[in-house]
UniProtKB/TrEMBL annotation:
Keywords: Repeat, WD repeat
Entry protein name: DCAF8 isoform 1
SUPFAM superfamilies from the UniProt entry: WD40 repeat-like
Comp. bias regions, Basic and acidic residues: 65-99, 124-137
Gene: DCAF8
Biological source species: Pongo abelii (Sumatran orangutan)
Classification of source organism: Eukaryota, Metazoa, Chordata, Craniata, Vertebrata
Length: 597
C-alpha cells in the first residue's frame, strides 16, 4: 500500500509541477532510469548511498519508479531526464563522447558502404566485360579458324588440262578458292553522280548495266572502262534495278525504282536509247525484278505494296497482278524476288517480316494459305521480338538452294526442296546489314561461295560449304557496299555502294590477300549489332537515319553544282528541287536511303 501510495503521490506531484520526494531521491530514481537506457550506472548503489538505509518510502518509491521506467521504454526515460536535469555531469560527458564516437563510426561506415558498392560493381563490371571479351574472342576465332583443304588444286588441274582430261578447266577454275583469295581491285567505272544501286551483266558478259540515284542508266564496256551508252531512265526517283532481258540481243532493259514504276528501255544498235515506257505501277517503292532465264518477254516485279506483278511485253496491257503477299490478312511489303532457275514456275519473295515465301504460279490460291507453297525461316526468328526483315534472297545456279540476308542478322542458306517450315542448313556471320537494303549473292559457276556487302564498307566472301570467311576487301569509301554482281563466265566481280562509281575485282594478286584487320572489323560489327538489338532498331529506323544523311549530302552536292558558272540555268535550279521534293513526299517514309537493288 505504501508503495502504491508513494507512486500515486509522485504522479500527482508531477502533474502539479513538483515532487514530494527529496532531490537526492529524485536523482536516485533518474539514475535507475539511466540504467534501463543502457548507461553503465548501478542504480542500487546510487540509491543506497543517497538514502542511507535499505528500506522506507524513498527506497520503495525508487524501486517502483525503476520498475515503471523499465516497462515504459527508452522514450519515456529521455523525457524524464530532460524534465529533471539532475543526472551526473560526468555521465553526461561519457554519454556525449560515446555518442560522438558512435556517430563518427556510423558516418565512416555510411561513407565506406558506397565505396564498397562501387568497388563491387566495378569488379562485377570488369568481370562481365572480361567474360564478354573472351566470349567475343572465342566467337571470332571460330569464324576465322583454319580453312579445310581446297577441293581444286592448280598444278594437278593444269597437268590434267595438258593431257586433255580436263575439258572444263576454266569452269572449275572460276569456282576455285585460290582465285577468290587473290581478288584485287582492277579499276573503277566513273560516270554517275549518285549512289550506284544496281549492276547487271548481259548474257555474254561483255556489257555491264548500272543504275543510280541520279536517275540515269549507264551501259559499260567494263573491259575498256568506257560507257557504251547512258540515258535518262524516265523514273522520278532512285533507280533500284536495271537488267538485260535474256535472249533479247541486249536490246531490252527492264528497270524499277523508288517511284514504284516498272519501265522498259529499248536500246538500238546505234548505241542509243530509243525510248522508255512504263509497263507497271506499284503503290510503293519497287526494289527488285526477277527474270525468267530464257524469256525475253516476261519477268516479275515486287514492291513495298506487297504486290507481285507478272509482266509480259507481248500483251497490250503487260502487267497483271499475280499475288498479294500477306501474313494473317496483313500485307507484307516486299524488298526482293527471285525466280527458281530450275523451275521457272516457282519464285521466292522476302520483305518486311522474317519469312521466305515460295510460290508456284500455277497453284496460287489466295484463299488457301494466302497462295504460299511453303515458307522458310530460321527457327530462332519465328517468334523473335526483333523485327527481322529479309533484304535480299537468291537461288543457287541449279535452284536447289536459297540464300537469304536478314536485316541486322546473319545470312542463311535453305534447301529449297525441304518441306514447309524447315530449318536453315548453313549460316554466314561477320558482316553487318543494318543501314541499307543490303544485297547478297552466290559466286562461282556452281555457287561455291557466298558474297555480301557490309555497313563497314567491306566485301565479305564465305566458302559456302565451310561457312568460313576466305576473302575480305574494302569495297566502298562511303561506308556501305550494297550491290554485288558476279560475271557469268569469268572470275570477275563487280560491286557498288554509296560511292558514285562501279568497282571491278579480279584475281590478279601475286599471292592470297592477307585478311588484315578482319578480326577487329568482325568484333566491331558484332558489338554494334548487339548494342542496336537492345534498342530494337528496325529497318524503318535505319532507313530514316540514312535518308537524312543522304539528303544532306545531296543538298550539298546540288548546291555546289548549281553555283554560277557550273552550267545550270535558273529555271533548272528552280524546277529540279521542287519536283524532287514532291516525289519524295508522295512516296512515303520507307524510301529512305541510297538503297540497292
Amino acid at each position: 500500500m505504501s508503495s502504491k501510495g508513494s507512486s500515486t503521490d509522485g504522479r500527482t506531484d508531477l502533474a502539479n509541477g513538483s515532487l514530494s520526494s527529496s532531490p537526492e531521491e529524485m536523482s536516485g530514481a533518474e539514475e535507475g532510469r539511466e540504467t534501463s537506457s543502457g548507461i553503465e550506472v548501478e542504480a542500487s548503489d546510487l540509491s543506497l548511498s543517497l538514502t542511507g538505509d535499505d528500506g522506507g518510502p524513498n527506497r520503495t518509491s525508487t524501486e517502483s519508479r525503476g520498475t515503471d521506467t523499465e516497462s515504459s521504454g527508452e522514450d519515456k526515460d529521455s523525457d524524464s531526464m530532460e524534465d529533471t536535469g539532475h543526472y551526473s555531469i560526468n555521465d553526461e560527458n561519457r554519454v556525449h563522447d560515446r555518442s560522438e564516437e558512435e556517430e563518427e563510426e556510423e558516418e565512416e561506415e555510411e561513407e565506406e558502404q558506397p565505396r564498397r558498392r562501387v568497388q563491387r560493381k566495378r569488379a562485377n563490371r570488369d568481370q562481365d566485360s572480361s567474360d564478354d571479351e573472351r566470349a567475343l574472342e572465342d566467337w571470332v576465332s571460330s569464324e576465322t579458324s583454319a580453312l579445310p583443304r581446297p577441293r581444286w588444286q592448280a598444278l594437278p588441274a593444269l597437268r590434267e588440262r595438258e593431257l586433255g582430261s580436263s575439258a572444263r578447266f576454266v569452269y572449275e577454275a572460276c569456282g576455285a578458292r585460290v582465285f577468290v583469295q587473290r581478288f584485287r581491285l582492277q579499276h573503277g567505272l566513273e560516270g554517275h553522280t549518285g549512289c550506284v544501286n544496281t549492276l547487271h551483266f548481259n548474257q555474254r558478259g561483255t556489257w555491264l548495266a548500272s543504275g543510280s540515284d541520279d536517275l540515269k542508266v549507264v551501259v559499260w564496256d567494263w573491259v575498256r572502262r568506257q560507257p557504251v551508252l547512258d540515258f535518262e531512265s524516265g523514273h522520278k526517283s532512285n533507280v533500284f534495278q536495271a537488267k538485260f532481258l535474256p535472249n533479247s540481243g541486249d536490246s531490252t532493259l527492264a528497270m524499277c525504282a523508288r517511284d514504284g514504276q516498272v519501265r522498259v528501255a529499248e536500246l538500238s544498235a546505234t548505241q542509243c536509247c530509243k525510248n522508255t515506257k512504263r509497263v507497271a505501277q506499284h503503290k510503293g517503292a519497287s526494289h527488285k525484278l526477277a527474270l525468267e532465264p530464257d524469256s525475253p518477254c516476261t519477268f516479275l516485279s515486287a514492291g513495298e505494296d506487297a504486290v507481285v506483278f507478272t509482266i509480259d511485253l507481248r500483251q497490250d496491257r503487260p502487267a497483271s497482278k499475280l499475288v498479294v503477299t500477306k501474313e494473317k490478312e496483313k500485307k507484307v511489303g516486299l524488298y526482293t524476288i527471285y525466280v527458281n532457275p530450275a523451275n521457272t514456275h516457282q519464285f521466292a519473295v522476302g520483305g518486311r517480316d522474317q519469312f521466305v515465301r515460295i510460290y508456284d504460279q500455277r497453284k496460287i490460291d489466295e484463299n488457301e494459305n494466302n497462295g504460299v507453297l511453303k515458307k522458310f525461316c530460321p527457327h530462332h526468328l519465328v517468334n523473335s521480338e526483333s523485327k527481322a526483315n529479309i533484304t535480299c534472297l537468291v537461288y543457287s545456279h541449279d535452284g536447289t538452294e536459297l540464300l537469304a540476308s536478314y536485316n541486322d542478322e546473319d545470312i542463311y542458306l535453305f534447301n529449297s526442296s525441304h518441306s514447309d517450315g524447315a530449318q536453315y542448313v548453313k549460316r554466314y556471320k561477320g558482316h553487318r546489314n543494318n543501314a541499307t537494303v543490303k544485297g547478297v549473292n552466290f559466286y562461282g559457276p556452281k555457287s561455291e561461295f557466298v558474297v555480301s556487302g557490309s555497313d563497314c564498307g567491306h566485301i565479305f566472301l564465305w566458302e559456302k560449304s565451310s561457312c568460313q570467311i576466305i576473302q575480305f576487301m574494302e569495297g566502298d569509301k562511303g561506308g556501305v557496299v550494297n550491290c554485288l554482281e558476279p560475271h557469268p563466265h569469268l572470275p570477275v566481280l563487280a560491286t557498288s555502294g554509296l560511292d558514285h562509281d562501279v568497282k571491278i575485282w579480279a584475281p590478279t594478286a601475286e599471292a592470297s590477300t592477307e585478311l588484315t584487320g578482319l578480326k577487329d572489323v568482325i568484333k566491331k560489327n558484332k558489338r554494334e549489332r548487339d548494342e542496336d538489338s537492345l534498342h530494337h532498331t528496325d529497318l524503318f529506323d535505319s532507313h530514316m537515319l540514312w535518308f537524312l544523311m543522304h539528303h544532306l549530302r545531296q543538298r550539298r552536292h546540288h548546291r555546289r553544282w548549281r553555283e554560277p558558272g557550273v552550267g545550270a540555268t535558273d529555271a533548272d535550279s528552280d524546277e529540279s528541287p521542287s519536283s524532287s521534293d514532291t516525289s519524295d513526299e508522295e512516296e512515303g517514309p520507307d524510301r529512305v536511303q541510297c538503297m540497292p537493288s
